[in-house]
Specification:
The protein is mainly α. 72% of the residues lie in helices and 4% in strands. It has one domain. Helix 4 runs antiparallel to helix 5, helix 15 runs antiparallel to helix 17 and helix 15 packs antiparallel against helix 19. The relative contact order is 0.11.
Length: 496
């Protein structure tokens, strides 16, 4: 890609950070505070979307803030991979902001100013990760995201929330230490930490060095990606408010982990070198085991958010599995699933939040007949469930199709079987909820309606988009083309 100077990547990072001041100052004026939240979200998405035409023309907006030493700088650059993550995260922040407004007003939640300010910082960090031009820049924003999310995890300040927050910090900061070691080793081996499609390690890099670097990346990005056995922080963090869970599972935190794997495998080590080292086979086996075990655990969860949490653990490993396979099709499927899973899973968490606000129900066993009183909510839940099971015409089918095709192309029939089996397990633990909601006799005699429009409209939008992205995968908004171009650059060595 041709590099062109642009302030837009920097502005996309800064806009929500600047908005924090305007969110915090009107502390006792929620309408003003939330107006600034929405304005910042819209401005961020507009900035990110405005770079899409340049990316589609093969041009890469970039800016270097300062250089620390030769090969290490604080720099931002938008490429095919970064715009995929940036577009999905910035768009979903808009919907999450509206949903959060309805949620915190309905509960009502305390310390709402801190809540919205932390959200804004998280999205700035997410954009920094998406648009990082090198590993040094990514590490900085990766750690900012970890710290900024902590106040959201402990938001309710109950003993369970404090425990979940501490566990979250211990796991993710420990992963951050390994990421610093990976940064140092990358610089020692390559003399640079700049991302380059196809990898930057010298051709004569020793196999032992490749395996060591891969191990450091696994112990760092593997934590945020919730690969077993590094996953237990994620279900524990479900004590947070539901919009925070949506942030953790769909918009930012866990997606930063799988995005980090994409950068490490495709732009630092290189798929060819990783494949030749044999390390990719270990990671593929680990993710395959995670997919199956997480799905089996999800089947046994009665708590709705816990079931969704273990579903996320499994689907994150779909993405990492695709990235480990030496196949462009698998990469396309993995990158599409970053977006598709985000759209479907945020729908489910929005639905869980709406159910909690109206009924205070948290368990699947309490949802008998709820679909007849909250038809829009449960219809959206059903659409997302179909997609996560990999059934057409919802978008989850598209990414899973390419993951299956990539597994076949790589000669890994065992992963084809695992992906198909996991689809059946997904259907088992999601469809049972849908059937219970619409067809089981209700044991509730209190009449209630849908949640507020601030909550219902976002979940309907994400459900409809999940459907449209499955029917028109190459048009909304060019995610298929972007994923194909990213995979082609990685396997063709076509630069950023």
């Amino acid at each position: 890609m041709e590099t062109v100077y642009s302030l837009k990547p920097l502005l996309a990072v800064l806009v929500s950070l600047v908005a924090v001041a305007f969110i915090v100052i009107p502390n006792q004026r929620p309408n003003v505070r939330e107006s600034w939240t929405i304005l910042a979200a819209l401005a961020k998405f507009a900035l990110v979307a405005s770079m899409l035409p340049l990316i589609l023309q093969g041009k890469s907006p970039a800016i270097t803030l300062f250089a620390i030493s030769p090969g290490i700088s604080l720099a931002l650059r938008v490429d095919y991979l970064g715009i995929i993550f940036g577009l999905s995260a910035s768009f979903l922040w808009i919907l999450t902001s509206f949903f959060s407004m309805g949620y915190v007003r309905s509960i009502p939640e305390h310390k709402q100013t801190r809540y919205f300010a932390s959200f804004a910082i998280c999205l700035s960090a997410t954009m920094g990760i998406a648009f990082a031009a090198n590993l040094f820049t990514l590490v900085i924003f990766y750690e900012i995201l970890t710290i900024a999310t902590y106040p959201l995890v402990i938001h309710r300040e109950t003993p369970g929330a404090i425990f979940g927050g501490r566990k979250y910090l211990v796991y993710l900061l420990t992963g951050g230490v390994f990421l610093l070691f990976a940064l140092a080793l990358t610089y020692q081996l390559s003399g640079t930490v700049d991302f380059q499609a196809g990898g930057i390690l010298p051709a004569l890099t020793a196999k032992s060095s490749v395996i060591m670097l891969f191990t450091l990346f696994l112990l760092s990005f593997g934590v945020k990606s919730a690969i077993m056995p590094m996953h237990s922080w994620l279900p524990t963090a479900m004590v947070a408010p539901t919009p925070v869970s949506a942030l953790l599972h769909a918009v930012a935190v866990v997606k930063a982990g799988v995005f980090g794997f994409a950068r490490a495998i495709g732009f630092i080590i290189g798929p060819s070198m990783l494949h030749e080292s044999g390390a990719s086979g270990f990671l593929a086996a680990l993710t395959a085991a995670t997919i199956l075990v997480a799905s089996l655990i999800a089947l046994r969860q009665d708590n709705l958010k816990a079931r969704l949490a273990y579903s996320t653990v499994g689907h994150l490993s779909y993405i990492v599995l695709g990235l480990t396979l030496f196949s462009p099709s698998a990469w396309i499927g993995a990158l599409l699933h970053i977006v598709n899973h985000a759209m479907m899973k945020i729908t489910l968490f929005f639905c869980a939040g709406a159910i909690h606000v109206k009924t205070h129900c948290e368990n699947v066993s309490q949802l008998n007949g709820i679909g007849r009183q909250m038809p829009l909510t449960m219809a959206a839940f059903a659409i997302a469930s179909v997609g996560l099971a990999g059934i057409p015409p919802v978008n989850g089918f598209i990414s899973k199709w390419y993951l299956v095709q990539g597994s076949y192309d790589a000669g890994q029939i065992v992963f084809v079987v695992i992906l198909l089996l996991s689809g059946l397990l997904n259907a088992g633990y999601f469809f049972s909820i849908v059937v219970r909601a619409f067809f089981a006799p209700s044991d509730k005699f209190t009449r209630f309606d849908e949640a507020s429009k601030l909550m219902i409209v976002p979940l309907v939008i994400t459900a409809v988009l999940s459907l449209l992205m499955g029917i028109f995968p190459d048009r909304i908004p060019y995610f298929f083309q972007l994923a194909s171009s990213a995979a082609q650059s990685v396997f063709g060595g076509g630069g950023l």
